[in-house]
């Protein structure tokens, strides 16, 4: 299937205005410059997301730092505790925030409906592997201990995210099964995850440039997150390398057809199945990386959200 024509037009505009894109020039920027560019682009891509209730909360990380959480709930009063999607934003461990992915969380909250909890985990290079993962695990622990107070049902939880947020979510699900965590997710909702940063993949060559996320930018992200080269082969960095996955929560993996991460996402789906995990996967053939934030670009994203919301409803309700 060819590239979605509206996305093709969008990419032409990005190419015409290099400073106006998201990640295409990040590998030639400082982290601070990349973050500023990403947030500015996020404002321009913001759509009229559904109205839901949101409030910022705080929890303590294991090292004593204070983390900001944002809790979204449907506007209508709930008659019983709400199921929860713990949603982790993408951005290569370096850029992205709860603000940049606000619309994504609102869509999931309104369409499911469920509560959505998101985490402003600390980013690289100031905080390298595995701090982002530890922050997300601490947020999940906060949910286990505070769900009742906030009208949430800790027995009906999904973990999800996009890009490296999906990576973090999948590692949380694996750890929950391995370590017997207080929250046992019912679903991994994974959109275009980083599954293996330890090797090269054909799609990273095929879609290296011109499709928003560039392969050189991926390397730039990984170099900022890793403490040392060996970290890339740690399964908590590259979950495709994880083994002993029996009992891990079922996974839904949604991939983009024109994405440097396509091949490893497909390989991860196969690997999870081979390890005994129930997996549903699909490729949105005409889309590119970061499609969840492209509601203004093409109406096709509305169909994608409808599909993902149905997956969430089936798992949580």
TrEMBL record:
Pfam families in the cross-refs: Abhydrolase_3
UniProt keyword Glycosyltransferase, yes or no: no
Entry annotated with the keyword Hydrolase: yes
Keywords: Hydrolase
InterPro entries on file: AB_hydrolase_3 (IPR013094), AB_hydrolase_fold (IPR029058), GDXG_lipolytic_enzyme (IPR050300), Lipase_GDXG_HIS_AS (IPR002168)
GO molecular function: hydrolase activity
Entry superkingdom: Bacteria
Alpha/beta hydrolase fold-3 domain mapped to chain residues: 85-292
Membership in a protein family: Belongs to the 'GDXG' lipolytic enzyme family.
Name of the protein described by the UniProt record: Alpha/beta hydrolase
